[in-house]
Amino acid sequence: MPEVDEQAGRTSRRKRADARRNEQTLLDAAASVFVTSGVDAPVRDIAAAAGVGMGTIYRHFPTRADLVIAVYRHQVDACADAGPALLASSSTPHAALTQWIDLFVDFLVTKHGLAAALQSDSARFETLHAYFLDRLVPVCEGLLGAAAAAGEIRPGMGAYELLRAVGNLCVGADGDTHYDARRMVRLLIAGLLQPSPASQ
Amino acid sequence: MPEVDEQAGRTSRRKRADARRNEQTLLDAAASVFVTSGVDAPVRDIAAAAGVGMGTIYRHFPTRADLVIAVYRHQVDACADAGPALLASSSTPHAALTQWIDLFVDFLVTKHGLAAALQSDSARFETLHAYFLDRLVPVCEGLLGAAAAAGEIRPGMGAYELLRAVGNLCVGADGDTHYDARRMVRLLIAGLLQPSPASQ
DNA sequence: TGAGCATACGGAACGACGCTCCGATTTTGC
DNA sequence: GCAAAATCGGAGCGTCGTTCCGTATGCTCA
């Protein structure tokens, strides 16, 4: 009987040795190419960097988005896990929210082209979009809820909408010395924090 | 001697009648296709809609960005012209700034895919990016300067950075009922208005 | 009016891309 | 060892933006 599939493909039906080796080679090559050429580097380049054929890439990662997810899964998970931790360790929910958003922004900004790919309406990146949302929206919801309950931010802000806005602000943030995404995100959060500009 | 070229090609070297007719046909066709399929609709579609060949498009508009600029030039100019007018007619500079940003956001949001094209790092849209910046940055600078001089906003905000941020927030704003770009921009401006969150 | 030429036209063709397909090759269970 | 199954490599397809060039057309001047 085949062993339980432990998601990372540790041992499912005992994949062939070359298959496992190629998968790792591909992940490494993709990560390296993403750094230099951005996440939408030509698939052919990644195949060449890994020294494998096109077919090999698409068997391991049915779509381009799956490859991107596989490369960044650990970092997305780490970001998601940091949410509750920050909430527990910070003095106020809003401090936790701010720190968590900073984490998210740092992640997006350092991955050339990732933010753009996330917002791309092209059907090709649907999976990527969905994965990020699945992992991060609940975490953000928790932070927002806590901050709203504490009365620190104006209510009615949705986690999806906030993440979307932050992601948007990070598009094209590298390679442009005149645009500081972190600063713009801080501004957005600042606008969120004040109770209501017209209520006083 | 050829007459002075009045930018819109009114009369330069007396273009052939069919050429002038085609240019107008192309502008109309492009505008209509942009509405339904977005600004990055296939060039072939635009040619087909106009009933002309590919060559005709590229002779009139050397690059795709030139076509987009030609289609939206009037509206960009109108937006630029509205800046000083608002500043003169509004009660406070910050009111003028807010209204002007609203104008800009409305423009971007109603043009399917335009915001995305503007932020695209692809060299293909460089010209488009440059045109928008040339026209709008000075206007925004005037509004920001007036608001800063009146002490209504925290200083140090660059016009380019603000426009970039607003443009980014508008990416993908249509077709997503859960994301309201206008609201996010208002939040950003709210963050800009308060003097300083830590200074009091 | 019509000849001659600059100008404009159409669409085939090119290169780059994402992705699929299939014959050749390798691994594995027996 | 051997055959079946899994995997590999890269040619090939469709789409896109853009270029190129033979052909058609409007303009000018006699």
What is the structure about, briefly put?
The structure is a homodimer of 200-residue chains. In chain A, 67% of the residues lie in helices and 0% in strands.
Structure characterization notes:
Two copies of one chain form a homodimer. By secondary structure, chain A is an all-alpha fold. Chain A has helices at 17-37, 43-50, 54-60, 64-89, 93-110, 114-119, 126-149, 159-169, 181-193. Helix content of chain A is 67%, strand content 0%. The longest helix of chain A has 26 residues, at 64-89. The A-B interface holds A 113, 116, 119-121, 158, 160-161, 164-165, 168-172, 175-176, 178-180, 183-184, 186-194, 197 and B 113, 116, 119-121, 158, 160-161, 164-165, 168-172, 175-176, 178-180, 183-184, 186-194, 197. Chain A binds a DNA duplex (30 and 30 nucleotides) through α1, α2 and α3.
Write the layout of secondary structure elements.
Two copies of one chain form a homodimer.
Chain A (H helix, E strand, L loop, with lengths): L16 H21 L5 H8 L3 H7 L3 H26 L3 H18 L3 H6 L6 H24 L9 H11 L11 H13 L7
Helix pairs in contact in A: 1-2, 1-4, 4-5, 4-7, 5-7, 5-9
Chain A binds a DNA duplex (30 and 30 nucleotides) through α1, α2 and α3.
Keywords:
200 residues; elongated; DNA-binding; mainly alpha; disordered C terminus; disordered N terminus
Strand/helix succession of chain A: HHHHHHHHH
- Biggest sheet record of chain A: none
Structural class of chain A: mainly alpha
Helical fraction of chain A: 55-70%
Secondary structure tally: strands of chain A: 0
Q: Assembly type of the shown chains?
A: homodimer
Shape of chain A: elongated
Distance between the termini of chain A: 68 Å
Low-confidence stretches of chain A: 1-12, 196-200
* Number of helices, counting only DSSP H or I runs of 4 residues or more of chain A: 9
Question: What is the percentage of strand-forming residues of chain A?
Answer: under 5%
Cα gyration radius of chain A (Å): 19 Å
